[in-house]
């Protein structure tokens, strides 16, 4: 490998290191299980509802393993070129720019594709050759075959709750990954998380969690998803800033969740029970 390239790769790797320890409250054995998978660079799928801690977990694991982290928020407009790279034309002429997946493969990063199911299938297939024994990434347009750095590992997140015929991972993609289940943590743990992240007392955090539990029971009965840990932290943050708790719950918990008037009233009533 030419010295100039190594220096650039090392610079990039340093730039993507997670420097400060992210605060992560373990929920089960996920840290040990991920570490075991990471030892063999096994591609991993994190399954679970939105806002339950998957991204925070990946940041924490990247820090713990001392690996750079490159995150891509997937969406349906994303093309294969957005992942692998493209030729750009500038004043000096034409030059190739690596996409985030290529960069991660070169520098040995954890590459986190968040909500991968949002991406179109023709985009998702570019990860396939990186997830089997070949661990390569063909850059067809450039005529280069990138061999993944030994530390490269692919991690994807996936919310099975949004599963539909149009939006589901194909078995050919799924069966390339080990999978860890995530969910909203049990009440005591979620209370500790909301108190820590939102800067409120355990007593207030505990009441917010009780409101969330009521909403999660309504999943499938008029609600697509219950209130996430992320939303509880938003509500806690508003309360800490001096917003009246019932208003904070309306703003951060109820209104984002539903446009349906009856459902909104039912959730407001749940809030009134606790605040
Ligand atoms: P996801 O990626 O599943 O959508 P996030 O990781 O963004 O969710 O979680 C939302 C927020 O909830 C995080 O920013 C963090 O503040 C908090 N959180 C959730 N679970 C945990 C946990 N186990 N430890 C620490 N913080 C957590």
TrEMBL record:
One of its GO terms (molecular function) is ATP hydrolysis activity. It holds the Pfam family CbbQ_C. Keywords: ATP-binding, Nucleotide-binding. Residues 44-177 form the ATPase dynein-related AAA domain. Residues 190-273 form the CbbQ/NirQ/NorQ C-terminal domain. The keyword ATP-binding applies. InterPro entries: ATPase_dyneun-rel_AAA, CbbQ/NirQ/NorQ/GpvN, CbbQ_C, P-loop_NTPase. PANTHER family: DENITRIFICATION REGULATORY PROTEIN NIRQ, MOXR FAMILY PROTEIN. Belongs to the CbbQ/NirQ/NorQ/GpvN family. This is AAA family ATPase. It comes from Pseudothauera lacus.
């Amino acid at each position: 490998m030419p010295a100039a390239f190594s220096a650039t790769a090392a610079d990039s790797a340093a730039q993507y290191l997670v420097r400060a320890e992210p605060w992560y409250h373990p929920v089960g054995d996920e840290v040990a299980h991920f570490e075991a998978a990471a030892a063999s660079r096994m591609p991993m799928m994190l399954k679970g509802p939105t806002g339950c801690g998957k991204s925070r977990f990946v940041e924490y694991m990247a820090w713990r393993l001392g690996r750079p982290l490159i995150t891509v928020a997937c969406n349906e407009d994303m093309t294969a070129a957005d992942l692998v790279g493209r030729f750009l034309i500038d004043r000096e002429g034409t030059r190739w720019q690596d996409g985030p997946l290529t960069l991660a493969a070169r520098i040995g990063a954890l590459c986190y594709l968040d909500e991968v199911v949002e991406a179109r299938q023709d985009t998702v297939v570019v990860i396939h050759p990186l997830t089997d024994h070949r661990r390569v990434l063909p850059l067809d347009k450039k005529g280069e075959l990138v061999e993944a750095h030994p530390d490269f590992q692919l991690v994807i997140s996936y919310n099975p709750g949004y599963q539909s015929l149009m939006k589901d991972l194909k078995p050919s993609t799924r069966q390339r990954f080990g999978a860890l289940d995530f969910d909203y943590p049990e009440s005591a743990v979620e209370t500790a998380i909301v108190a820590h992240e939102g800067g409120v007392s355990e007593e207030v955090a505990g009441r917010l969690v009780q409101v969330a539990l009521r909403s999660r029971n309504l999943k499938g009965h008029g609600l697509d998803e219950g209130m996430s840990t992320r939303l509880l932290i938003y509500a806690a943050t508003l309360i800490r800033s001096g917003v009246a708790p019932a208003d904070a719950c309306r703003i951060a918990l109820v209104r984002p969740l539903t446009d349906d008037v009856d459902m909104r009233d039912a959730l407001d009533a749940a809030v009134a029970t606790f605040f």
